[in-house]
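REQUEST ID: PR-0412
SUBMITTED BY: lab tech R.K.
PRIORITY: routine
TASK: structure prediction, single protein chain
INPUT:
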Amino acid sequence: MSDQTSHDPTTTPAGLLTREELGTLVQNREIDTVMLGVPDMLGRLKGKNLDALHFLTQLPAGPEMCAYVLATDHNMTPLPGYELTGWHNGFGDLRVSPDLNTIRRLSYLPGTVLVHGDAAHHDGRLVDVAPRQILREQLKALADHGLEARVGIEGEFVLYKGTATQVRRAGYRGLTPVSPHNLDYSLDRPPALSAFFHDIQDALREAGAPVEAIKTEGAPGQIEVTWPYGDPIRACDAHTVYKHAVRHIAAQHRMTPTFMATPQTGIGSGLHLHVSLWHDGEPVFDMEPRGVLPQHLGSSIAGLIAALPHVGPLYAPTPNSYKRYVSHSFAPTHYTWGPDNRTCAIRVVGRHENTHLEVRLPGADANPYLALAATIAAILHGITQRPKLPEPYTGDAYEALGPLPVPRTLDEALTDFKDSEIALHAFGESVVRHYARAAEAEIEALHGHVTDAERERGFDRA
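STATUS: complete
OUTPUT:
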């Protein structure tokens, strides 16, 4: 990640449009569509395409949207068991309040801008279980301690040859990655992949979400994108733009991406969060010359180690998420920390004023707002409750015997989450019940399904 430079969250970043600039583009007929999107529980943008002139004339009121977009599964199935909405109240609407600091022009959708929105009840209250609002509440709690967070995100995905239709017809089996083998850090890439890199970098730059770097990763077809440090909400907003852009641009190249945490046995894709704390414009993680941990840094690490085991469904939301936590896979298997140690769950990175924490637990399928909210909540737990800081690991943390292991299944993580005093204190009963229900739905969706591996092991041997 890049150096952590000063950042003013009240200004319009480069690449984003003001309301006035959007009005001019609409008047000049350069923009005719506003895509207004709310991040759902999975971190996907859900919303409507609005006529641009109608959007501007109807401000600040936004359109209505069925509340089930914040209470459903991967397949947009209307599910029972949610308090927000369901069969018990007829799946009513919410209003989407546009955030006019997020107007982005999408080069891959001519004539279109994307605007992020916040889900609100009809009385104006923001929906407490909406991912953007959950993160916002944790950042407010941090601000109550005189602190702000700055965040950089690393996202990974795997890219396959063939259109989405071809991939579905193949039953998601026997797919061919766009690169044939491990091209980690390679600058000798297939021409088709280099062309994709160029297009995605251009698209994200023009959309106000410029990348810091993009590279090939350790698995065939695997790609990593990193962003510079900045405001936490904007970092997560940029991640939703990236996923949207990757899918569209990959389709233009007749390729198909997946953001599964474990798309194939032995392949894991992460969503690493780089986090630092600041007070009055100064970093509070600044390491002393002799390597002594500053108080806030030590408390933050201790909080992450103590609290993250209680909020697993917020950063590892599906059964597939837990198949990534395999020994010597670069995904952690224990709640450990260490200086510049990629075998740990929490890695201390950087020097002096650039010291920050890399949280390596979330997978590519994590919702960045929720994963970051869990991270901030754990840091706050450390600052307020002062749990004991365990010893760091300088060697192979996969061989650790004492530290708590990462849950092996979503079932285990759900048990730790739904009755956790730490989770309830940080997020409140409404949020915990909502995301516990989401985890239950994921478990139920796969319960009883026979896998290819089971057939291979038992078809003619049982």
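NOTES: The two ends are 51 Å apart (CA to CA).
REVIEWED BY: pending
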